[in-house]
Design goal:
The complex is a heterodimer of chains A (122) and B (110). Chain A has 122 residues and is mainly β. Chain A is built from no helices and eleven strands. Classes of the chains: A mainly beta (122), B mainly beta (110).
Chain lengths: 122, 110
């Protein structure tokens, strides 16, 4: 059974960089069958797709966040990571990592992490 | 890219059927058969229930069904049960550079 687990600081200061890691177990991030995404959900609001990375290292980002987002892959640790720079209070949200498969990506998200709340505050 | 439009809340009695709508445009819902539905209980991660408009994920009750007409997709829950009380989100692939758009979410009360 595939499991995803987010980790990282729960509190980030304004203008700093948010960094989260997703550890995948029960499956490999280095397979060509899946894309690995980050999705966030501000308190009381809808879900927002942030971006994905493929095993080849190719990425695709939501244009609304593209200038501030980097998603990377660490195959040796079976992890992928999110960096979001210059954060503001508007970036306060529960951040989820998720797996998607099927083309075109991200067509569906079949496995999700439990989510981690990141608060942006001084 | 705007979020897909869903009713804020839908309610029903145990055993009844309810339908949640998800309205988009010809660039997303209407243009592709790549609509998914997710169930989210409070404090939990979303769970994929329906994908590609009407395919049920393994293990999901056949009380859940999906359909689409034009720019509007629908999720129907028949034989409503207490454990179906949750938030439901639709999602669609989109031809815009956003690639993926979620719905505004619907709170189902049983």
């Amino acid at each position: 059974q595939v499991q995803l687990q987010e980790s990282g600081p729960g509190l980030v200061k304004p203008s700093e960089t948010l960094s989260l890691t997703c550890t995948v177990s029960g499956g490999s991030v280095s397979t060509d069958r899946y894309w690995w995404s980050w999705i966030r959900q501000p308190p009381g609001r809808e879900l927002e797709w942030i971006g994905y990375i493929y095993y080849s290292g190719s990425t695709n980002y939501n244009p609304s966040l593209k200038s501030r987002v980097t998603i990377s892959l660490d195959m040796s640790k079976n992890q992928f990571s999110l960096r979001l720079s210059s954060v503001t209070a508007a970036d306060t949200a529960v951040y989820y990592c998720a797996r998607s498969h099927g083309s075109p990506p991200p067509r569906l998200f079949d496995y999700w992490g439990q989510g981690t709340l990141v608060t942006v505050s001084s | 890219q705007s979020a897909l439009t869903q009713p804020a809340s839908v309610s029903g009695s145990p055993g009844q059927s309810i339908t949640i709508s998800c309205t988009g445009t010809s660039s997303d819902v209407g243009g592709y058969n790549y609509v998914s539905w997710y169930q989210q209980h409070p404090g939990k991660a979303p769970k994929l229930m329906i994908y590609d408009v009407s395919s049920r994920t393994s293990g999901v009750s056949n009380n859940f069904s999906g359909s689409k007409s034009g720019n509007t997709a629908s999720l129907t829950i028949s034989g409503l049960q207490a454990e179906d009380e949750a938030d439901y989100y639709c999602s669609s692939y989109t031809s815009s550079s956003t690639l993926c758009v979620f719905g505004t979410g619907t709170k189902v009360t049983v």
